[in-house]
């Protein structure tokens, strides 16, 4: 009995470890690739750790490839998008949860069906609209696009969070003499802060990671980090050490943010599925 | 209802509308107007290679051409195959991982966070990582398979049509496991423990508990996540485009990638028509789900 129990436990951990290795190995692999010197990278023997560590690729990215500029582009787009999208979706979600008016459900449905439009369907007309608005190849084009594409999901996330936030607290503030705006700012916002952070991280991740729109709506000046990664291919063949180093740099900010916000974000992501 | 109260409600309604307005306007500008424009463009010969004077209304000609386009049919069928293979395997593996993580063990929170990595990494990078791992000369997957004795010598996975397609599938499956794990794990944690206890007392084996208790209880999580994933996989461009660019010889070209390539080559009318067809196909999956969600939201 105990032996069978032990066997099951071993099997359990074995399968779990295999899963973790499969899910994480590619990530480890690009890190190792990024710190290998070129001689080791392109040798006939594949090595599973860097025998000699070289940060050459990173140095080159920052000096001759203009990587900081692309990071800055991405940062500007993502930060502004996060701010605007968070504000818009907070207002909309607040309206959906705290006000009752005709057409409310229709509007909620409208946002929900927003996600059904394929990326490639909107890509083409957006390109010409952005050109007419004279914002093509500027960060504004991407900010406009990302704000809108992240709205439905952020509204949905925030809807879930706000539903769980008791209205009684705001009502108490109203009775104590606050007006609605004061109740919103002084009572509602502080309670919602962790949820806003989680939603903000989601929006930031989406805009930082997006490629398809960025590839069409930016040029060499306004290029974001995902597009820049792609351009590392082709100019001089594929430079895998630089590519993987760029990959590590591009993924670090979102990874760090995700690990801080993951608990609340996962709660919000899954709430709808469980209830719905 | 007194006039005073009515006015108060109207004022409240006005605030409700005002607060939604910014979100609504940006959706109009970036989603609804472009979608309408795509509809119009799909009826035009709109090819920026030939200058604006070539733009003309041609009715359903684009669609007629599409149905005769072999690349359309092959990429459409490939998308179907990809959705079926990738989503089902993502689901099975995600489910298995969720079952493992649903047990209590030391460090579960960390393991859950770490196994989300494929979900956090941008699609471009996912495509590039796997392109490097599948590399025919220096690829680590070749090295592992040779060391395990499965392969005799290095194989150019991304250079051969069939293996390139399956390499892309593997990549998508890897990327999709965390999402399913997350959704299903959340569903699992919502199942009350006494249901299992009752099933165990009634003599149900592990498998029976899984099939008769677990799966029916998380039906909702399963259907929502499967639908979202189908839409997501069918629409995805970044992974494939950065892994194989649709090649070799169009072997990994899905409908979304085909549309993207057509758009990049500035044949806008034709690609709009293609994209509308993709959307129509996805609607078949999405509409039943949305009707249900909408009912449960209102009900």
How would you sum up this structure in a few lines?
The complex is a heterodimer of chains A (276) and B (299). Chain A is mostly helical and 276 residues long. Helix content of chain A is 78%, strand content 0%.
CATH class of the largest domain in chain A: Mainly Alpha
Q: Show unreliable segments of chain B.
A: none
What is the count of DSSP helices of chain B, taking H or I runs of 4+ residues? 14
CATH superfamily of the largest domain in chain A: MetI-like
> Which pair of chains forms the biggest interface, and how many residues does each contribute?
A-B, 93 and 92 residues
* CATH superfamily descriptor of chain B: MetI-like
List keywords for this structure.
heterodimer; A: 276 residues; mainly alpha; MetI-like fold; 2 domains; B: 299 residues; globular
Would you mind describing this structure in some detail?
The complex is a heterodimer of chains A (276) and B (299). Chain A is 78% helix and 0% strand. Chain A is built from 12 helices and no strands. Chain A starts with a helix and ends with a helix. Chain A folds into 2 domains: 1-54; 66-275, MetI-like fold (Orthogonal Bundle), CATH 1.10.3720.10. Chain A has 276 residues and is mainly α. With 299 residues, chain B is mostly helical. In chain B, 39% of the residues are buried. Chain B has a two-stranded antiparallel sheet. Chain B is 74% helix and 1% strand. Chain B contains 14 helices and 2 strands; from the N terminus they run H-E-E-H-H-H-H-H-H-H-H-H-H-H-H-H. Chain B has a single domain (68-298), classed as MetI-like fold (Orthogonal Bundle). Chains A and B meet through helix 1, helix 4, helix 5, helix 6 and helix 7 of A and helix 1, helix 3, helix 4, helix 5 and helix 6 of B.
């Amino acid at each position: 009995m105990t032996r069978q129990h032990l066997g099951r436990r071993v099997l359990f951990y074995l399968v779990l470890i295999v899963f973790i290795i499969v899910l994480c190995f590619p990530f480890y692999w690009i890190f190792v690739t990024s710190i290998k010197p070129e001689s080791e990278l392109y040798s006939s023997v594949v090595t599973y750790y860097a025998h000699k560590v070289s940060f050459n690729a990173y140095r080159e990215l920052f000096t001759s490839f203009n990587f900081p500029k692309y990071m800055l582009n991405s940062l500007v787009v993502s930060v502004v998008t996060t701010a605007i999208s968070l504000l818009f979706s907070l207002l909309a979600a607040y309206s959906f949860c705290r006000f009752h008016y005709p057409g409310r459900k229709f509007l909620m449905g409208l946002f929900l069906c927003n996600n059904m439009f394929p990326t490639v369907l909107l890509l083409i007309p957006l390109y010409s609209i952005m050109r007419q608005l004279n914002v093509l190849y500027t960060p504004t084009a991407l900010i406009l696009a990302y704000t809108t594409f992240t709205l439905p999901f952020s509204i949905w996330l925030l809807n879930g969070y706000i539903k769980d936030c008791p209205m009684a607290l705001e009502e108490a503030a109203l009775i104590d003499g606050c007006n609605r705006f004061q109740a919103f700012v002084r009572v509602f916002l502080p309670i919602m802060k962790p949820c806003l952070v989680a939603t903000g991280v989601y929006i930031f991740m989406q805009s930082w990671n997006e490629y398809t729109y960025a590839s069409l709506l930016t040029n060499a000046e306004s290029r974001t980090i995902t597009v820049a990664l792609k351009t590392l291919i082709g100019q001089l063949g594929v430079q895998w050490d630089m590519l993987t180093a760029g990959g590590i740099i591009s993924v670090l900010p979102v990874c760090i943010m995700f690990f801080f916000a993951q608990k609340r974000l996962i709660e919000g992501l899954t709430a709808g599925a469980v209830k719905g | 209802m007194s006039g005073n109260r009515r006015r108060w409600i109207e004022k409240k309604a006005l605030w409700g509308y005002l607060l939604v307005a910014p979100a609504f306007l940006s959706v109009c500008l970036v989603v609804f107007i472009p979608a309408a424009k795509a509809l119009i463009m799909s009826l035009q010969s709109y090819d920026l290679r030939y200058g604006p004077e070539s733009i003309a209304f041609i009715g359903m000609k684009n669609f007629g051409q599409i149905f005769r386009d072999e690349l359309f049919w092959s990429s459409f069928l490939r998308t179907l195959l990809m959705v079926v293979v990738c989503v089902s395997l993502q689901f099975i593996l995600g489910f298995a991982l969720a079952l493992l993580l649903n047990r209590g063990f030391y460090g579960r929170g960390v393991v859950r966070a770490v196994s989300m990595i494929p979900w956090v990494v941008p699609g471009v990078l996912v495509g590039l990582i796997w392109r490097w791992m599948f590399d025919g000369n220096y690829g680590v997957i070749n090295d592992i398979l040779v060391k395990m004795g499965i392969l005799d010598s290095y194989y150019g996975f991304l250079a051969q049509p069939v293996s390139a397609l399956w390499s892309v599938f593997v990549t998508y499956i890897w990327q999709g496991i965390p999402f399913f794990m997350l959704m299903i794990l959340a569903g699992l944690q919502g199942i009350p423990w006494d249901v299992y206890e009752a099933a165990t007392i009634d003599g149900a084996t592990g498998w029976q508990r899984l099939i008769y208790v677990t799966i029916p209880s998380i039906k909702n999580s399963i259907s929502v996540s499967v639908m979202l994933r189908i839409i997501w996989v069918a629409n995805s461009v970044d992974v494939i485009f950065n892994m194989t660019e649709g090649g070799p010889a169009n072997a990994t070209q899905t409908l979304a990638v085909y549309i993207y390539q057509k758009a990049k080559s500035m044949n806008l009318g034709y690609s709009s028509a293609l994209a509308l067809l993709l959307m129509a196909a996805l609607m078949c999956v999405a509409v039943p789900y949305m009707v249900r969600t909408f009912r449960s939201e209102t009900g």
